Prior knowledge:
It is a single chain. The chain is an alpha/beta fold. It has 3 domains: 112 residues, no CATH class; 145 residues, 3-Layer(aba) Sandwich (Rossmann fold), CATH 3.40.50.720; 57 residues, no CATH class. It contains 9 helices and 16 strands. It has a 6-stranded mixed beta sheet, sandwiched between helices. Strands 9-8-7-10-11 form a 5-stranded parallel beta sheet, sandwiched between helices. A 3-stranded antiparallel beta sheet has the order 13-12-16. Helix 3 packs across helix 7.
Amino acid sequence: MRPDLLTLASSLAAREERFAIVTVVRREPPSSARVGDAAVVTEKGDYHGWVGGGCTRSTVLHEALRAIADGEPRLLSLSPEPDEGRRPGVVALPMTCDSGGTVEIYVEPVLPVARLLLFGSSPAVRVLSRIGRAMGYRVEVVDPDADRENFPEAERVLKAIAADAVPRGAHVLVATMGERDLEAIEAIVTRAPAYLGVIASPKRFAELREALLARGVPRDALDAIAAPAGLDIGARTPEEIALSIMAQIVERRRRSAVQGPKIAEVPHEAIDPVCGMSVTVAGARHTAEVSGARYYFCCAGCRTKFLAEPARYASGGARAHGS
Length: 323
């Protein structure tokens, strides 16, 4: 991979941003791509690098964003005559470049390590810290009375944390036993947590809910809070309580993966009326307007064919999909 792409990937990873690395792993002439050609696609749809002509760009971008969304790597095969059934596990797509040839591209999503942010230092929180670390989470503890000795597995042990320093998309538990819980919850809900659980009695959480509503916290944000935190498994001991909470975090995380995380959506797309390929509307380089309708093309060749016989292709063009 080019040094500038490595630097970009490192920078994105350091900022805990989602992105995908796409790499050409196989080619058949006369494809212009070469084995080892690579690109980096960000969750916002920015495309850096090169893995083939402009006619493959929108397809690769589309699949890279889907990989970022579902967290699953995939192998793309772009060929003039795609045959998806012949090779299970390979995403077969049409190659529409005039040069022809076949190119196979591996798409690998790079996602930040899941964060587990724990407010409090109760015995259940200590156990949850150990479980979280064992499951690969980055664990951080926030409590004025917490110390490193009681939380050796935690990456950081903080006395306090500013609201804007709460990591976005983290899995958060508030277990402060009635102290500073109102302020903690108010700060957390503004950071779009993947999970927010509160250890509190139904009466205490009802009081917190009313106070937070009075402070302007949206009702739907409060409805998403797990209170009391944890799956109902009849937990009594700190170990059982911690287990029930981690089980609930896993349940919601997996459910979110199936539904698709709330990240930048795939850019609005249109269908090339000549070859049927998906074309990203934003920044499209090959377009044409006929009878007041705008059409988008994967490459200059398709645009030329369209303009030569617009009546033949117009009925199949400008069909948008995505969002």
